[in-house]
Amino acid sequence: MNRNGNGNGTNGNGGNGLPLDPSAPNATQWLRRLIGAARGKRRALVHMQHNPDPDALASGVGLQYMFERILGLETLLSHTGQVGRSENRAMLRWLRIRIIPSYKIEYDDYDLVVVVDTHPGSGTCRLPGGVVPDVVVDHHPMDEALEGIEVPFLDTHFGSTSTMVGWLMVENHIPVPTRVATALVYGIKTDTLDLARSENPYDEPIYREMYDRSDREILRQIQRSRLPQDYFQVLERGLRRARVTDFAVTTYLGRVDHSDAVAEMADLLFRLEDARWAMVGGSKGPMMYLSIRAVRAEGVDAGRVASVISDGNGGGHETFAAAQIHRPADGTEPEAFFDTLWRRFLKEIRAKKSLTRPLTVPVDAKTPEDSAHEKKQKRRASRARDAANGA
Ligand SMILES: [Mn+2]
Question: Residue 155 sits in which domain range?
Answer without folding.
Answer: 27-223
